[in-house]
Amino acid sequence: MTASAQLRSMVCLTLTLGLTLGLGPNQHGGFTFLLPAGSTECFYQTTTRNNNMEIEYQVIAGSGLDVGFALISPSGYRVISEFRTSDGIHTVESTEDGDYSLCFDNSFSKLSEKMVFFEVIINSQSHTGGGREEWANIAVSESLVEYKMEELRATMDSVYWRLEKSRQVQTVLRAFEARDRYLLEDNLWRVSFWSCMNLIIMLTVAVSQIYTLRRLFDDTKRVRT
Q: Which domains does the chain have, with CATH numbers?
């Protein structure tokens, strides 16, 4: 199997979709994709004002395990710019209204494509506030004040964020697993290749030595006769 076919099969195994970036109400999502050699790919994430956005990316497979990364705000300002890095974690506080551009650059590599995993997490203040208002309305309408709704909300929020954090950690661990598997397969191919080359060289040397010794004894017999 060629390296390109291995990368494509690994993408099929490690593809994790939590959302379609820029579409829908979901606030968390991860994506694994192939970045062709000599090209740049950009993804867009829609945000609203005063949200917090966390971006994490990692090069899972490909020669050098490095890409360039840039984050561009809706106003055109380059918030983050990195060149030939294997991974990174960045947080943007107080986001703007509009679409943020997440660009991955592999233009410096003319032969090797890269497999890249990235995850976007948006903490929407307005969304959490709306949820609390709904809880308050339910509490008033059904007379559940005696259950200490504030404590209940705090407990449920804690459980929710811990579950989200666990999901994010599991997603990152899957990306690490895919990267380690690729490195192991690549190293196994190299070890097998050089082992075969050494074996061929040893057999060639052995055959050459035997042939030389036989020619030497044949020449000696001819001289005696």
A: 3-184 (2.60.120.680)
Nearest to 44 by CA among 100, 94, 95, 88: 100
Element of type H or E holding 154: helix 149-224
Q: How far apart are CA 188 and CA 177, in angstroms?
A: 16
Share of the chain above pLDDT 90, in %: 14
Contact, 44 vs 81, CB < 8 A? no
- The pTM is what? 0.56
Let me know how long the chain is: 225
| pLDDT digit string, tens, across residues 74-114 | 998 999 999 988 888 888 888 889 999 999 999 998 888 88
For residues 100 and 53, is the Cβ–Cβ distance under 8 A? yes
